[in-house]
Amino acid sequence: MKLLSHLFFLEEETEERGLRRYQLRLNPQHEIYQAHFPGNPITPGVCLILLVSELLEKQTGRKLALKQVVNVKFLHVLSPTEHTHVEVYFRSIEQDGSHYKIKAVLQNDDLTFAQLSMIYVDATEAR
Question: Does residue 3 form part of some domain?
Answer without folding.
Answer: no
